[in-house]
Structures are given as structure tokens and as C-alpha cells.
Amino acid sequence: MDQTDFERYVLNLLFVALKPFVADESGWEYKPVVSLLSGYSLSRFYDMTEALFSRLITVNSHSQSGADRAQQQVSLILTSNRELQTPRSLAEGLSGVILANAPRQQQQQQQQQQQQQQQQQQQQQQQQQQQQQQEQQQQYDYFTFTGLLPTDQRDAVFLPRPESLLPRVVVTALPPSSPVVAPPPSRITAPTRSTGGATSPPSRGGAAPPPPAPVKLPHNCTAVQIFYATDRERKDDKKLGYTFTAKRSSDEALRYGECTVSIPATHKLGELESPSFLRFEFRPNPEKHIVLQVVTTLEEDAFFESVKKRVDSSPAKDAFIFVHGYNVDFDTAARRAGQFAFDLGFIGAPILYSWPSNGTFEDYASDAANVGWTASHLERLLRLLEARSGANKIHLIAHSMGNRAVCDALKSLSYDRPAQAHPLLHHLVLAAPDIDAETFRQLASALRLVSDHITLYASSKDKALAASAKLHKYPRAGGIPVLVLPDVESIDASAVASDFLAHSYFAGTYPLLSDIYELLSDDKPASKRFALRSATGTDGVYYMFKP
Questions:
Q1: Would 397 be classed as within a structural domain?
Q2: In the chain, N or C terminus with fewer CB closer than 10 Å?
Q3: Which residues form a coiled coil (predicted)?
Q4: Residues with pLDDT less than 50, the chain
Q5: Residue 513, domain member (yes or no)
Q6: Does a structural domain hold residue 280?
Q7: In angstroms, what CA-CA distances link 144 with 134, 161, 340, 458?
Q8: Closest to 143 in 3D by CA, of 125, 169, 114, 119
Q9: Quick check: pTM over 0.90?
Q10: Distance between CA atoms of 532 and 490, rounded to whole angstroms?
């Protein structure tokens, strides 16, 4: 669970308390929290709860009735959960102290806290500046060697940008009929929109709604166009045009289309910028966040024609397929695919395969059932892409539980593949695979039949996989010790896995994104990629990120 997911948990807990003070409640949904996963930081929960309650009192200090109403609402929530021995018990005691004080006393306490926080922030800023200077020097050496340009503007002053390097990642102007392609992080351009020139078909059960109104993005945002294929059930959406639920498609058919994802100018490499409840951001803002703007549907023939046009317009004539993991809804999957394509400067055809994950933590068992159900549909998509995309190279990147569907689909594909046939995939990237380690050993030979190169990223810090291993009683392929298998390049990413659960490091950390860039763009083996060093384990050689 990353920081955003943890904030969503706190939002659920305090929603009833904050609801009277929210001007526009459209789109809000209160879901009672019935369980709390292990591994949470109690001190983190304490700090967040204190800050939220303090803010609540400060905002309503002008009205005693408002403060009283807030106290009643909060007490109602906390009293109902009093018997639970979880971090909520901390919130109960804390709320009693905060809400019992008069608003003025609370404001005085807040002022003292703010002064202390300012002093701490100043110290942290000084430390960060020193650390940034060290990192920039390291990045200078790294980017001078690789030619990969950074996204952060502070690095732009420090790093050289020779024009000879730009053709590697900069996309030149395309014909008007071509889909929108994301420029690299170092070249932010005005947004454009495209729906692929196709009319959305009617939704099941009635006529299609009118197309969504044109989206006006800030001038400094970039529009990224991605393709999608999904076996989720479709529903109409006034804002997006269409979206997809967590339910399986009733006819088991694949739905195809395109998405427009906006990337803000302030985007930092590896981050999936989202509204934060702690920053009192209740709606996505294109100037700050990565936002899914438009979803359009395409018939199968139109979809593959559009994919082929995008492939033909790219220098390498390649495409990549991204398969997300557990606890991911369609919106988040599309945003992550857009961020991933943007950060990699990928100018082929980025394709999202979204299976019906429920997008909630408590539905692990349901997601596990759905990922098994979706494997045959993913297999069909891969066959069609090979036959109709015109791509010289197809890469597949799978994360977490999504690796189960990928491995099952590729295993089926290997059964009827001629011995002399060219492999379907050029690069198969398995990031934090939530697969039984021994099962993966058995599948590896089948994966090698359909893939030129296989790369596996694992981490000892992955708390989600640690919980999965505990649940299943057996280690996972994405955990530690690193699996070392013939013709599989295994990489220990423990040194760079830094998100809240250290589970989404594949698309959320600077070194790993750079490593994947070298892998896909330059076809470099792990032994020649700049950020890696070799290590020897019990079963042979694997690779680690340099300190």
C-alpha cells in the first residue's frame, strides 16, 4: 500500500466527520473500513490523525456549533470502533484530547506546532539541498554516459543537453491523423487530443450517450494517448465518455479503445501524482496530477488499424503491453500506463491490458480468481497483436498479480508454437511477480519459448509480496532470495524500492525506470547496463543496483 492508499484509508475513517464541511460532495462515497492490514506505522497514523483533527477545529473555530457538530460526528465514528485494538484506538484517545479543548486553545497549540514544524522543515531543507547536490553530481555522470535526459527542472540547469542525444527520445511532428504521442520528460509541449477518428459504439442496453465535451488542459500539460484492451464490464460515464467497472464482461469479450492521459508540467519521474487528502485536494487537477481525461471505444478492426499506424510511425516499430496487478481499478491502470509511457519516452504503441481487479485491498481472493479467468483473453490479445500490429518488437511488462495471467497466457501460447518460429515477445519484464517461486521455475522453460529476453525484478523490501508469501505459505518469485534461472536476468531491486509498501518500484523509482529504458530502447543486457552490478548467489549470477 503506497502513501496515497494509506491516505485513502484515513479518508474513509474520517469522511463522516468532514462531510458537513465539504461544499460539493459529488463523487464522494463513504465505505466503512472493517479491517486494517498489518504493517502500518502507528506513529504515521498518529501524526496524520492529529493533523486532520487540528485542521478540522481550526477551520471551524469561528463557529462553536460547527465544532460541536464535528465533535459529535467524530465521536460517533470512533465509538463504533472502540472495541478494535488497532491504530484506531490511538485516534480515539487523540480525538478526545483535541476536541475537548476550546478552539482558541487549539489554535495556540497549532501555532506552536507550526513553529516547531517550520524549524524542522528548515533543517530538512538544508539536508535535502545537500543530498540533492550529491545526487545531481551522480546524475551528471550517469546521464553523460547513457544520454537519457531527466525530467526534473533542477537537473536541467546542471546537466548537459547535447542536440545529438535528442533524437533518442524526442518525437518530431506527426501527421494530423496520427495519435497523440508523449514527448520525453525534458520537452513539455502543449496538449493535444485524439479519439482515433472512430465513433464509439452504443453501450449495451441502450443508445450511447453524446460524446464528452472537449477537455481544455492547461497549456503546460502533455496529452499521452494510450491504447487499451480489457475484459471488464463497460459503463457510460458523463465525464470520460466510457469507463469500466470491476465486474467481468458478461459475454467474456474484449473491449478495445484509446485513453487520453494528461501529464502536468510539474511531474516528477516515477511519480503517479494524485489528489492527496492531507493536502486537502479532493479532485484531480491537471496542473498538479496525472489525470485520465477521455476514454473512447473502438471496434476490433479499428483498434488494430490504429495500433498499426502508431507502430509504423515509430522509428523502432515497436509496442509494449502493460498488465497491472492486484487492487487496481481501470482509472488508475490507465493513469499508470500513461505515466510509464511518458517517463520512458516511449514512441511506439503503448497498450494497457486491464483485467477486472476490484481495486480494493480486502478483495485479494476475488482478484486472484479474476486473474486466472482473464488469462485466455490476454492470450487472444497477444495472438492478434502478433498477427495485426505490424510491430517488429513487442514488449510485455507485468506487475504483481498480473504476472499470473501473463505466465498462464504465454504457457498456452508455447504449446502450439512452431519450434522455428520467431519468439512472440522481444522483452518480457516481470516486475514483483506475485507467483509461487517453484511454480515460476516450472513455467520458465515455456516463457523462454515465446520471449527473446526475460527480466525479473525482485525486492527484499516488498511488503505486499511478504504478506502474500505468508498467506500462501510459500515464497513468491518477486521476493528474496532472488530466483536465478537459465536465460532469465534476475535483478535485486531492494536498494531502490522506496514506495510505502516497496511494491510499485518498477514504475516509481528513478534508477529502475532508467534501467528499463536502457533495456527497451538500447537492448542492453544487464551486464552492460550502467546502474547494475553483478552478484553471485547460491544458484548463480544475478544483478543488483549500484549503491
A1: no
A2: C
A3: 104-139
A4: 1, 15-42, 46, 78, 81-85, 88, 90, 92-102, 141-210, 500-503
A5: no
A6: no
A7: 16, 9, 23, 28
A8: 169
A9: no
A10: 11
